[in-house]
Amino acid sequence: MTSKAHMLRIIFSLNFLLWVFCPTASSAWGFQGHRIVGSIADQLLNPRAKLQVATILGFELRIAGPWADCVKSVVRNDDGTFEYKENPNHPEYEIPCTSFRTSGEQKRMEDYVGRNWTQCVYPPTGQERGCHNTYHFDDIAIERDRFDRGFLGTSEHDLVAAVSAAISVLKDRPATAPFSIADKKEALFMLSHFLGDLHQPLHVAAVYLDTHGHLVDPDAVHRIDPSTDTVGGNNIRDQHTPFHTEWDAIPDDLGEAATPALLSAARSTPPSGGVVEDWPALWASDTVAVAHYAFEGANFKFVSPQHWTVAFDDRNAYLAAQDSIKRRQLAKAGARLAELLNAIWP
Ligand SMILES: [Zn+2]
């Protein structure tokens, strides 16, 4: 083996170990995607909503978008205190977080994590890593055709509930349990991020797989068998990349702000209709429908307990479809973030 091949092999092994022990290190859309969603919304806010965001939040939505991932750097010390600690293995995590490293903002991140740490057990491992981490996703089985609180893979502390709780606070009502939201600024930080997550198909819908790589339907047997849980696609690999991470990555040409094409797509997103309180579930249902396309043509193979690979009938066609779904979903997320804030501050 050449030394280069040897080095590549070591790097691959390290990545594999990281994947095994840190399966949920990824975050929806990466910070670039969250910035794009915020950037679209910044440009679609009405003057009153824009003023409210500037006054209450003090950041553009584009800057605020990654906040809920930045708080993942807050750790619980042995003495029970919470502290923001840079991850020495991942200096890149800091890139979108520099705006929040003033003493006041850092205190807010530590405080938010402390207040939202213990209300639930992080599924599916049961290990303690903070309830606030569950606010970023649902895992509704792909066999379903919509979001419904009665389906498995949802919870009182899931993504839809987090969006609803933040809306409550912006409408001068208390946050629904188990959420602790200090004020409207925190609610805006949450919404600027979670609207993005809500439009990433693998943050809302999931496949559950058996040891043959076949779909199993948890709702049919009224329980999630942990051995079938793909953890939102984190336990499925497409070649060397976790399938979830592949979906988080945005098309390279998009950069970190709204493009004219995305803005135009956002402007043509149909209005949601009905009342604001129903929107989180309505939008999640829309994403479940989109997820059916995200899994179309995907075939799964069992590798080892709780690890699968994915292959496609036509890989190039799949990647092309994935690219256009991502663009549509980013545009919709930005449009709906603005729609929501414009409805709260008409
Ligand atoms: Zn997230």
Automatic annotation (TrEMBL):
This is S1/P1 nuclease. One of its GO terms (molecular function) is nucleic acid binding. PANTHER family: ENDONUCLEASE 4. CDD domains: S1-P1_nuclease (cd11010). One of its GO terms (biological process) is DNA catabolic process. The keyword Transcription does not apply. Pfam families: S1-P1_nuclease. Coiled coil: none annotated. Keywords: Disulfide bond, Endonuclease, Glycoprotein, Hydrolase, Metal-binding, Nuclease. The keyword NADP does not apply.
